[in-house]
Amino acid sequence: MNHEYDIKELLEKFYRNECSEEELGQVITYFKKQELTADFPNVEETEAMLSSDDLDDATADRIFRNIVGEETPVIPLYRKKHYPFVRYASVAAIFLVVLSSAWFLYRQTDTANNVGTSAAKPEMPNAITLKTADGKIHILKSGQNVAVLDSNGKLIANQEDGKLVYDSSDESESAYNTLTIPYGQRFSLQLSDGTLVYLNAGTTLKYPVNFKGAQRLVYLEGEAYFEVAKDKKHPFIVNTDDMNIGVLGTHFNVSNYPEDEHTEAVLAEGSICMFTKDQSFDPKTNLLLKPGEKGSYDRATKKIQTSPVATETYISWVRGELYFHNLTFAQICRKMERKYNVVIENRDAQLASERFNASFSDVPVLKVLGYFNEIRPIEYRISGNKLIIQKKKNP
After folding, report:
1. Is 2 left (phi over 0), alpha (psi -120 to 50) or beta?
2. Cα-based distances in Å from 17 to 14, 28, 231
3. Which has the higher per-residue pLDDT, 61 or 274?
4. Whose CA is closest to 273, among 316, 312, 322, 228?
5. 10/328 Cα distance (integer angstroms)
6. Which of 43, 295, 320, 327 could be cross-linked to 331 through a Cys-Cys bond (beta carbons 3.0 to 4.6 Å apart)?
């Protein structure tokens, strides 16, 4: 896609019916590719665009056919109460999906008949915990500034608000610590070599108090964004069971949740190598990723595939944002469970396999469900820490 124009400005012009023929062609091409790039407006930004309904029906129908094609089955859509109902064959309905909720919805049914009830999740603590080499468990709370001591009273690290900082001058014998982040929370860590690690909800990272030896090795289960301190003599290795990511100094994201089908690495800066547990770190022979690329390891086939991606969309979680790209609703439920620390039970089998693109800022879970309800009517209720979703009954 050509990014010489600002997509937000172009979409605003499109909705006001002020696009030239060339700009209109760019919009149609954008939607046909089913793209949702990092510069696409999120929910709050796009709601502000929908302050009027200026498109005439003839123009709307023409654009709609160009985007989805004559053969594409159309799904009835619904708008908020303060917007008039627009018949589903109009591009205004497309804008409801693409703009007011930052969605581009297309139906794609998976072969598996997954009802959408969340997959079994690993047991997680209810608080951020640090387990030190001596077996002691420390409870960490965001917003604190405290010293973390071992059982002998020796300083291990300092907590500075939402970050745990290790002292680079510590020359004592290396020992591994384990930091675990529960669902509903995020935390960050500065390792002894200066590497910054941002940990997502439901994540466990095992790492040494200080690095010794030829490699800087850490073990990850969950998701983390790494800003690795440069050290050409000591490569930094992230172990994710069957897959390893090796770097010398760079910024990248790794997602390795046990309930997911893939382990993914997305490179923001520098370069990284992906290699299996049967291989050694070697930039000359390992699979090398370039900035803007994603490497996806399929746990079933044991194969790695690479593809170009909008990097920002994969690291937006660091700011508490949600981004869904071509995900089934069942996969989206797992992401929401981690972020909001809830259990989601989806009783709508058809919805479970439908795929969505969406982006949200840091908003409550009920607001996210509210947007789903706008484009795909559902019923949902809360029972304790459980969200139960089912198909909306006809009135």
Report:
1. beta
2. 5, 14, 54
3. 274
4. 228
5. 29
6. 327
User: Which residues lie across from 344 on neighbouring strands?
Assistant: 387
Q: CB–CB of 380/355 below 8 Å?
A: no
Predicted confidence (pLDDT) per residue in 14-37, tens digit: 766 677 777 777 776 666 554 555
pTM here is 0.71
Domains of the chain: 7-100 (no CATH), 128-314 (2.60.120.1440), 325-391 (3.55.50.30)
d(C-alpha 238, C-alpha 260), whole Å: 18
Q: pLDDT tens, 324-379?
A: 888 899 999 999 999 999 999 999 999 999 998 888 988 999 888 888 888 888 88
CA pair distance 263, 250, nearest whole angstrom = 19
The Cα angle at residue 129 between residues 128 and 135, in degrees rounded to 5: 180
Amino acid at 165: V
Beta bridge partners of 230: none
- φ/ψ of residue 201, rounded to 5: -60, 145
Between vectors from CA 310 to CA 71 and to CA 75, what angle results, nearest 5°?
Answer: 25
Exposure string for 162-174, b = 16+ CB within 10 A, e = fewer: bbbbbeeeeeeee
Higher pLDDT, 356 or 221: 221
Q: With contact defined as beta carbons under 8 Å apart, do 355 and 326 qualify?
A: yes
- Specify whether the backbone of 281 is left (phi greater than 0), alpha (psi in -120 to 50) or beta: beta
Read off the amino acid at residue 166. Answer: Y
Amino acid 148 reads V
- Distance in angstroms (rounded) separating the CA atoms of residues 292 and 304: 16
Please determine, for residue 83, whether its predicted confidence score (pLDDT) is greater than 90. Answer: no
- Cβ proximity of 207 and 191 under 8 Å: yes
C-beta separation of 201 from 182 below 8 A: yes
pLDDT at 159: 94
- In angstroms, the Cα distances linking 41 to 266, 307, 322 are 22, 23, 13
- What are all long-range contacts of 160-163, with beta carbons under 8 Å and residues at least 24 apart? 162/186, 162/187, 162/188, 163/187, 163/188, 163/189, 163/190
